[in-house]
Every structure is written in structure tokens, then in C-alpha cells.
Amino acid sequence: MAFVSTRGNAPVAQAAEVILRGLAPDGGLYVPQSLPQVPLAEIGEMRDAGYVAWAKRTQDFTPSTLGTAIETAYSRFNRPEVTPLVSLSDGAFVLELFHGPTLAFKDVALQLLPHLSRLSKEMTGEARELFVLVATSGDTGKAALEGFVDVPGTRCAVFFPEEGVSEAQRLQMLTQPGSNTHVIAVEGNFDDTQTGVKRIFQDADFAKKMQASRRMLSSANSINFGRLAPQVVYYFYAYAQLLSRGVVQLGDPAHFAVPTGNFGNILAGYYARRMGLPIGRLICASNANHILADFMETGVYDTRRDFQKTLSPSMDILISSNLERLLFDLADRNAETVRGWMASLRTDGRYDVGEERLRQMQGLFLYGWADDEATREEIRRVYGQTGYLLDTHTAVASRVLAAYYRQHEADHTPCVMLATASPFKFGRDVLVALGGEGVEEMDDFSACEALASRTGLPVPPQIAALPTMPILHHTRCEKDGMEKALLSVLP
Ligand SMILES: *Cc1c(COP(=O)(O)O)cnc(C)c1O
Predict the structure, then answer these.
(1) What pLDDT, on a 0 to 100 scale, did the predictor assign at position 81?
(2) Are 278 and 38 in contact (CB under 8 A)?
(3) Could you say which residues of the chain have pLDDT below 50?
(4) How far does residue 259's CA lie from ligand 1's centre (Å)?
């Protein structure tokens, strides 16, 4: 598969190069020149296929060893289905993407990406160690550590803001074993941490040191196409499950509702649709930072607004970087048009894609948003009516979906809601939503135990074990001392 940049000023690149590089050299994002197609007849034939079979069918990356990599990656999920499809009520389904090692959907991609990186190194003859640097606000850091741990020829260092992550997230990272993993706490907030990592990436002196120690810096965030590709799989798998259970006939559409932040997850759905999957509409659900919902309503992407801290922190984003890949298609793959919009974003904080493209976009996507109050109400409503416990991110999608069906009673298309985190990862807020008493006095772990006894669901072992696990990383640094701290932990 060959790739071009959304900004149009980079040479055509092959998959292996794209995965190692992340960002295109002209600052754009790599997009496939054309997408492989999965014919409807084949979807029908594969209706009973498992997740791993779907992963092998949809990952267009040549080495034969990829099959083994896929098996290894998804054997670390604690459900045989990998991403189980749960029936919620008539025609409404939940696709649980959170049964990986860190209990959030980032595992689906970050368990496979390190293997893709390793294979890419072999294919390109890259002999240096791949050194992945991550600044995290919580979920991505731990998922990257779990993905890269002990993968030969790779190393992963994560910086997290001491002020920015929950107690469970902090312990998840500090207890990370492995000889190629490093975790550093930064005295500051997420912005300080992210700025510091960007500075390290741009520092010529640091680059020289890495060159001398034969290391190649890389990134594991969702601008890397290697993180998007593994996410296409579960859309196919979920549709096949609907077929297999007789919920849809071959070729009938299904909607998908996606809690959205950086636009990665939902973009994978859009690619699945372009690969031939009969997706009806993709429902883009935002929280109180509803810049995407507004964009889909008006065609104007306007960042001139305040950032809100919400109950769904992994969706608290004002610049959705993956949106640029959709823009490229909306612009009929004209990079000059995309460059114009990006320039306008830089100078004016906004861009306008115009009436015609707006209509085109509205034909593909539905949209909506829910604030914290609505999110809590939704968790309570769904638990009360179905006994199913949503996390704070998934509840946003559920709320937007429920509003859509209320307004469109004639639409009987089945819908799959993507569940992106275990409710226990945000146990305290979920317990508050259910009206739990005395939550203020509890620490995060007691809140999870209270949630478990309230609902009869077990606390996931990854969380239950945390308070007694040994702390393996002790390095802290000031926001101006990140590079020095990093050099001090490297072997
Ligand atoms: C990252 C994340 C999201 C947002 O996904 P995008 O691909 O950035 O749109 C939603 N929910 C959870 C729990 C996440 O970790």
C-alpha cells in the first residue's frame, strides 16, 4: 500500500516507512493512495469469522509474519472474542473495546503497533533502536508501555504530568515492568509535558546523542497510520456479528456511534465504509468540547473557544488532528485546498469548508454532544433500564444516539455503540452518576469497590492489583529538566 501526504509536498511512501515516521516530512498526515476493497460476498462468507481472522483479512501489510504478530497482540485481551458485541436492547448493541491490558480502546491499536514497527524496521533495514517518546494525559501512556514492553529493538519512554492524571492512571504507569520501558513524572500540567516532549523532538543536540547511541526517535500517537489501521478491523468484525446473529441481511446498513476526541476511532469507521462495509451513518459524539459537532452542523471549524475539563477527559480536545485526513477526501484529495484550510486555522483559528462539502459530510455523519450533566443522566438511565454499566466516554455516544432515535422514529437501522473504556477506569465518576453516597470520602480504589458491590460486577484485576504492586519508576523532574531526566534513565 502506498501513501501520500495530506499537504501534498512529500514523496509517495510505503507502509513500513509511514509507520516508522509517523508524520509526513511536509507536516501533513499520511493517507493511503487507495484503500483495499472487501467485497460484500466475502463479508457474507466471513460472517462467522473471529476477530483475528478479520484482522488478518483487513491489514494490508505484506510480511507473512504479520499473522503471528496479530495473534500475539490480541491474545493479551481477556475475552476470546477480543471485542465482544453485547446486545443492549432491540437493535442497539455495544461493542466492548476495553478488554485489553489497560482497559481502554487504545490497546486495540497499541498492542499491534509495536509489532508493525518491528516488522517495518526489518523491511526497511533500519538497524537503530526505535525509541518511542510519549507525552500522556492518562490513557495513551500506559497503553504504549504495555504495547512496547519487551518488543525487541524498541524502547518506550512516557512523560506524565503529576497534576494531570488520576491515582489509578499514575499507579498503572509507575508499576510498569520491562527492561525497555521508562516512566517520568513531570512537575507541571499536560501542556507543560507535551511542550517538553515536542522540544526534545526538535533539539538538535539531543538528536546527535540519539544518533551516537543508534536510536531513532518515533511517536505512538494517533497521527501515525499504524494506529488507525488496526481500528478498521472491529467495524468489520461487529458487522459480521450482526450478520451472523441475523440482525442484518448482507448489504443492509448498520449505524455506528463513536465517542470522539482526536477523530481517530471514527475515521477508522469512515475508512471501513470506503473499503466496502455497509455502514449507514457514523455518529460523531462530542462532550462539552463540541467543536466537531459544531463543524458538522455548520461547516466551520472554529477553535476560538474555551477548553472545558469534563468527565470524559480522553475527549477533551480542541484540535482533532485526524480530521485532516477526512478534509483531504472532502477536498477531493486536493492538497492545496487542505493547505489553505490549515493556514487559515493557524492565522485565524478557524476555517470554513463551504456549503457543498458540508452537505457531503452530513451525508456520511450524524453528530451531537452531551455535557457532564447529560452524561451522568445517561449512565443512570441506561443502567436503570438495561442493567448495563457505561463509562463516562461511552455514555456520551449513548446519549447522542438516544436523542437521534427519539427524533427519527422511522429509522429502524440497528446501531453499534463503541464502548471505549471500562466503567471501572472512571469508577468514581460512574458511581457518582448512579447516585452513590459518601463518594467524596473515598479514594479511587474504594470507589471502585463500592461500584462493584453496587452493581455486582467485578473490579478488573488490573485495577484491583494496583495498590499492592511495587513502584518501579522513581524519576521526577521539573518541566525544564525533562531532557536531562530522560538521559539519566536511558541505559
Ligand atoms: C482516546 C479515547 C477516546 C477518543 O478517541 P479518538 O480516537 O481520539 O476520537 C474516547 N474514549 C476513550 C476512553 C479514549 O481513551
Answers:
(1) 97
(2) no
(3) none
(4) 7
Instruction: Return phi, psi of residue 159, to 5°.
Output: -105, 130
- C-alpha 340/C-alpha 345 separation (Å) is 9
pLDDT at 63: 67
- pLDDT for the residue numbered 1: 85
pTM of the model: 0.95
* Cα separation, 266 vs 203, whole angstroms: 34
User: Could you identify the residue written with the cell 521508562?
Assistant: 182
How far apart (Å, rounded) are the C-alpha atoms in residues 29 and 165? Answer: 28
Q: Active-site residue 106, yes or no? A: yes
The confidence score (pLDDT) of residue 14 equals: 94
| Residue of 36, 31, 37 whose CA lies nearest to 15 | 31
- Cβ-based neighbours of 295, under 8 Å, separated by 6 or more: 301, 302, 323
Pocket perturbation via mutation, ligand 1, pick of 105, 267, 310, 396 by most ligand atoms within 8 A of CB:
105
Cα(266) to centroid(ligand 1), Å: 10
d(CA 16, CA 117): 8
Provide the terminal-to-terminal Cα distance of the chain, rounded to the nearest Å.
36
